[in-house]
Amino acid sequence: MSDEAFGERAERGAPGDFGEALAGPPWILGHRGSPWEAPENTLAGMRRAVDLGLDGFEYDLRACGTGEAVLFHDRTLERTTDAHGPLDLRSLPELFGIDAGSWFSRQYVGEPVPVFDEVLEIAGSDTRGWPQHMIEIKERGITAQVAEKLNELAPHMPVYIASFLRDVVLEARDLGLRTMLLAVRADEGDRRFVRDEKIDSHGVGPGGWRTAAGRDDWSFCERWGWSADDPDDLLEACRELVGFNTNEPQRALATRALLSLAPDDDGAYPVRTEVLNVEPETLPDDVRERGEWFGRWSTHAYVRNPFPFRVDVGCGVFVRNGAFELEGLPARFELEPGEELAVPFKIVGGARRPAGDPLFGALFHWKEGPGRPLGRLLLDAPIRRTRFAVADAIARRLTLLNESPRDAAATMNLRRHGTHILVEIENDGGLQEAHTVVHLAGETARGGRGLRARLPEDFDATPDGVPFSCGIEGLQDGVPVVRRWAGGVPEGLLNGRPGRLIPLTTS
Asked: Active-site residue 133, yes or no?
């Protein structure tokens, strides 16, 4: 395949000739639609999920100021619209004048905030029928309205009512709806609740089934996942779960296709990359002027043949955000069954702010043979750029990123105190009404000038650490602003992945 052809397929993220044709289980739903390609929680995003060949989509519901259920994740408008302030202070007519697409790209200028009724009108594909809906209810008070709309407009629609709020799940159950309790990770309390209250399913976050409780008996309900994006999480989800939602539709479809094409392979995901350390404080001044999410790395990717026959492999990198120079790619080689090859390359570049990491793609080709047609499958893995912090009993200063030339220096202090970490503002960079925000192990919390957060129970036995970021939220000239140490704050796919908090070692 030519370099141009590989680039075209990689840019589209196509999983190959098989990914789109296969159906679940496991059922694959788009998380808030297809948020790399269209603004989240919009009709455009839901339609794109269907177009990609997914089995359905997940979206969030909240009530606006006049009580109608609308597709929206946050309590406030600023992250995903051109407006500011609480959603529940805006009437439905006011929402009609708000732009929920221009923040994403010019292509979606004027995209509206959808009313719940509208998403029920989205048709599925000819081969799959109506799309499955995972409806996450974010607040109390709208479940009865949702049930009424479903009974009126979509009585035969395959729907799960999901929530982190137990009373919302119980109300949905009592209204005769299919239910799903959500959690960050599986624990014994939720297991007993789901079993005793006869909840239909339980959905947990990435890696959330790898707990002691997750290994117990859950045969009384369906096991689901949310935000299964990384290759290892997707492979686990496709092998073990009834269904999941994802921000990476093409990678998820390709992983499901992989298990169909290589059903006897029990190995790890066939494409692995090394973590690249981001250290803004070590960058030369001329580089830091361009932005602080930059670097120069010599690294490897590892490609394994999971198939019981020889394959040809073409490798390359495609970029979601920023600008990069590469040495050593694209590359081509053959692999025997089970063989793995290390692919060395150099990558230089980055962006002013954390966002999507580059992707390393491996396009597997195979010839026609006994019991198999000619085929190909594209598998990819993110080239993770990660910032690290150490949980130490002695306070450590964290320098926040300068993501704009106008940003003043801003710092926070991080200190471990037993089973908790303490994060506090040292220098707020001139923000008014400054307060702390912390993302730790999949959960986000907000405080005042400081915040205390509990570490996971197995933190000290996890040398690779846990997802972590922190930042300062405040006002600058009356406009909400976030200063941050890494991605992950505020929430949202396009705000980049969190860094890692690692335990202090004495070795």
From this structure: no
